[in-house]
């Protein structure tokens, strides 16, 4: 297991351009928002929070989505088409250990990303979470990472070729991110009910509570995440292919 995690980390960091933009994109976004909203007071538009108190957890959620869903689905589609997955399957490495190594790698990248975002937010005056909130944040991040990894593998199993992977991944992700209140709060009751049954908004709210509202575990939203993770895992188990599809 340690060897597999180390392999995933080495392959990630030896692609410096990909690693650089994985961390830079969310940091740039939170920096821009920090410059725009620094010094702002509480606003009812942001549910009684300052703009930055709202954006730090939601941008942290986006960084987890990028690491555990988008990149994972694209990487698996590329590895399958290049024949890497076929060769991995022929080794003694169990399939469950291969995917557990991917999950651990995604969690490590997500933790680094979230730490950078929280650090930048702190530079703009956003208070750090108290120690009492850290267990809820840790459980939410791990469960969210696991759920979105499962969904990433499920989507990768439906992608026909690596060239189509970025388009397929983003056409699913972008609408969910926007209707889930990631970049601006949604005050439509209908949209909130719809997005509340989908995975992104529950993840946002499960992080928003302990990060900004000093609450504990959000069991309802964590349950939604767990359900979507189970759905993704079932689709992945039934549909995932190790061999490239014939042209």
UniProtKB/TrEMBL annotation:
Pfam families registered for this protein in UniProt: ABC2_membrane
Sorted UniProt keywords: Antibiotic resistance, Cell membrane, Membrane, Transmembrane, Transmembrane helix, Transport
InterPro entries with a match to the protein in the record: ABC-2_transporter, ABC2_TM, ABC2_TM_bact-type, ABC_2_transport
Membrane topology: Multi-pass membrane protein
Transmembrane spans: 20-39, 54-77, 98-124, 136-156, 168-186, 219-237
The keyword Transport is annotated on this UniProt entry: yes
Domain annotation ABC transmembrane type-2: ranges: 17-243
UniProt subcellular location: Cell membrane; Membrane
Family membership: Belongs to the ABC-2 integral membrane protein family.
PANTHER family xrefs: DOXORUBICIN RESISTANCE ABC TRANSPORTER PERMEASE PROTEIN DRRC-RELATED (PTHR43027), TRANSPORT PERMEASE PROTEIN (PTHR43027:SF2)
Protein name per Swiss-Prot or TrEMBL: Transport permease protein
Biological source species: Actinomadura alba
Lineage: Bacteria, Bacillati, Actinomycetota, Actinomycetes, Streptosporangiales
């Amino acid at each position: 297991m340690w060897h597999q995690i180390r392999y995933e980390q080495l392959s990630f960091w030896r692609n410096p351009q990909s690693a650089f933009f994985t961390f830079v994109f969310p940091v740039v976004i939170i920096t821009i928002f920090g410059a725009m909203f620094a010094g702002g007071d509480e606003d009812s538009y942001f549910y009684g929070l300052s703009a930055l108190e709202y954006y730090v957890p939601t941008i942290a959620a986006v960084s987890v989505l990028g690491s555990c869903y988008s990149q994972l689905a694209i990487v698996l589609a590329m590895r399958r088409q290049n024949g890497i997955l076929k060769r991995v399957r022929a080794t003694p490495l169990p399939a469950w250990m291969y995917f557990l190594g991917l999950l651990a790698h995604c969690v490590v990248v997500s933790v680094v990303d979230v730490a950078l975002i929280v650090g930048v937010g702190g530079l703009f005056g956003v208070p750090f979470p108290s120690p009492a909130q850290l267990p809820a944040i840790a459980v939410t991040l791990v469960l969210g990472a696991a759920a979105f990894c499962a969904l990433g593998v499920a989507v990768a199993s439906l992608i026909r070729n690596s060239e189509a992977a970025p388009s397929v991944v983003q056409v699913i992700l972008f609408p969910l991110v926007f209707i889930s209140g990631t970049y601006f709060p949604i005050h439509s009751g209908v949209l909130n009910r719809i997005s509340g049954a989908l995975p992104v908004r529950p993840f946002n709210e499960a992080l928003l509570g302990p990060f900004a509202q000093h609450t504990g575990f959000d069991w309802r939203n964590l349950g939604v995440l767990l359900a979507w993770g189970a759905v993704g895992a079932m689709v992945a188990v039934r549909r995932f292919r190790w061999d490239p599809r014939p042209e």
